[in-house]
Design goal:
One of its GO terms (cellular component) is membrane. This is Pecanex-like protein. It is found in: Membrane. By secondary structure, this protein is an all-alpha fold. It has 13 helices and no strands. The longest helix is centred in the middle third of the chain and has 34 residues. The mean pLDDT is 83.
Length: 343
């Protein structure tokens, strides 16, 4: 459903069950919306409910930890306090670990925030979906959203970070966007927030909570409207399941890793709309497949960058002579892992 790698079997099972339950909950609304009558100026109420629930639940899942022990600890302390008394004798107060209590408070604050934000997001999404804006403004709306997401993503996640680096593009000797304390030898006051830092935060919020959800909802509406033209066609049940799973995966990816989405979205739009349109099925299917492929490629890139940086010849000065001798023998294992990763 969404990339949530973990090394704990308990966390893996918990994350899988959580995603399956959400997909099963919204699947009924998706299937009902496909068999409901659509029109050029009419979106079924079931589909609007589906969009609202999907967005709210995806937002909630993206903010939750994959470790169920923290949530269970919070539930146990609130509803089963007698179980707390059965635990082994606590250490003295002066050496008590404060981390569990801080984690419980963090989870509690997140749940309180989601209790307010999720219904609000569901209502707003329901209203926008019911307004038929995603049908009446096609196909111009799709291209506007793709261009807007690409421009904002490029400016936010590539251009601004490069201008703040010590050596922008390795062509300039100093950062273009400097902090107020950059030229000071010793900083005596608290650091001040610069205008480009505020701009970066606002652009991320707009991108994360407005642009990418609009792109996904637009794709979901187009897909469901296309499937509803032939609801008796074999595979309608599978298409409804795909709409639910793909929508949840793309929304959770947008909320969790928005910095990588503009590359995937721009490549999908350019590749399937202009370069090879005969390979395209629907934009939702294209975007879903490319998001999985690009997530694997990003993971592979980070691993290769780490390995190549570690065994680079210019790093031998801080290492040992044995490392310079032993690292080449790790190449077969690295190649094997790369091949397995690609498979």
């Amino acid at each position: 459903m969404c990339v949530s790698a973990t090394t704990s079997p308990l966390s893996s099972v918990y994350s899988l069950i959580r995603s399956v339950l959400v997909a099963a909950l919204v699947y009924g609304f998706s299937l009902g919306a496909i068999y409901a009558p659509w029109g050029e100026a009419h979106v079924p109420v079931l589909f609007s409910v589906f969009c609202g629930l999907l967005l709210a639940l995806s937002y909630h899942l993206s903010r939750q930890s994959s470790d169920p022990t923290i949530l269970w600890s919070l539930v146990r302390s609130k509803f089963f306090p007698e179980l707390e008394s059965r635990t082994p004798e606590e250490p003295p107060l002066e050496i008590k670990d404060p981390l569990p209590e801080k984690l419980r408070n963090s989870v509690k604050e997140t749940l309180h925030s989601d209790l307010v934000m999720c219904p609000l997001m569901a209502i707003i999404t329901f209203a926008i979906s019911a307004s038929t804006v995603f049908i009446a403004l096609q196909p111009a709306l799709s291209f506007v959203l793709y261009i807007l997401a690409g421009v904002v993503g490029f400016f936010t996640h590539y251009l601004l970070p490069q201008l703040r680096k010590q050596l922008p593009w390795f062509c300039l000797a100093h950062p273009v966007l400097r902090s107020r304390e950059y030229s000071q030898f010793e900083v005596r006051d608290a650091a001040q927030l610069m205008w480009f830092e505020k701009l970066y935060a606002w652009l991320q919020c707009v991108e994360k909570y407005f642009i990418y959800p609009a792109v996904v909802l637009n794709s979901l509406t187009t897909e469901a409207h296309t499937v509803s033209q032939n609801p008796d066609k074999p595979g309608a049940y599978g298409r409804a399941l795909f709409i639910s799973v793909a929508g949840m995966k793309l929304l959770r990816s947008s909320f969790c890793v928005p910095s990588q989405q503009y590359v995937t979205l721009c490549f999908t739009a350019l590749f399937f709309q202009f370069d090879y349109p005969h390979f395209s099925q629907t934009f939702l299917l294209d975007y879903y497949c490319m998001s999985i492929l690009f997530s694997k490629l990003w993971d592979l890139l980070y691993k290769l960058r780490f390995v190549l940086t570690y065994i680079a010849p210019w790093q031998i000065t801080w290492g040992s002579a044995f490392h310079a001798f032993a690292q080449p023998f790790a190449v077969p294992r690295i190649l094997t892992r790369v091949i397995l990763k690609l498979v």
